[in-house]
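ok trying again, last paste got cut off:
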Amino acid sequence: MSTPATSSTIASAVPDPTARPPRPGGRRTRSLKNIGWVLFFLLPSAVPLAVFTLAPMVGSLWVSLHTWNLISPMRWSGLNNYTTLLQDPSTRTVFWHTLAYVAGYLPLVYVGGLALAVALNRKLAGRSIFRAVYFLPVITSWVVVALVWKWLLNPSSGLVNAVLGAVGLPQPGWWTDPQWALPSVILSSAWKDLGFVMVILLAGLQAIPQDLYEAATVDGASPWHRFRYITLPLLSPSTFFVVVISLINGFQVFDQVFVMTGGGPAGSSQVVVGQIYDLTFRYGRAGQASALSWLLFALILIITAVQVRGQKRWVHYA
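nice, full thing came through this time. structure:
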């Protein structure tokens, strides 16, 4: 049996003649206004990004399709610059040198930075001073660091060989020896970037709950097991960030190579960005240099995409 309709029910069913109908597109208008405000506040960073990053990238892509010596007018060449580079043995050589640099630099800087982070995460006297000292090379100019390490690794008068000779160890030729030129650059690069990796990993260590360590200690876990099964898994987000940033920076290595070895001796330490510099300013082949920069960009993009895709397997977020 149906219940009789109350007055309030009837009143709610009758439309109010004084109410304004919803404006068509009102929600769309508010969304456009919100987008407009977002773009307005992004302008201070978007304009420099477009002018100094996106525009040069588009310009270099256009130049890579031409033959140009920076003086004469550009001549269209299509993909000839890319095919020439891919067939040139020197291109493969500089890419192998760059890969060798990254393979030596990344483990060294990560393990060293992790060791410093673990050591300085403990309650030590003067801990803040040590943190500042280890971070100081990060804010030092690359030219200064490269010149200092070039002096330290001087085969005849350097401090490193003097110490090695005093303890009866072999004294390499370092940046003057084709076999040791690239390791010299790797050593100086890892020393400079240790502080950056240390700070990132130290922040990750301090975000790990101490309750986990206390519970593992009560269960009888050794320090190694706590490090292996608690620290490393929960530090994986910081590790992922460090690895991605270090790889991107490693593939773009240039300053220390230019100052310490100049790509020598006999091209034994020449890297991709150094080759781009030489093609542009020494040989007047700006088109090939731009094409080489896009090949490097493609390699970095592929490696970074693989890392981002594979992070689900080993990165654990607490």
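cool. Strands lie at 66-67, 75-76. Residues 98 and 251 are 6 Å apart (CA to CA).
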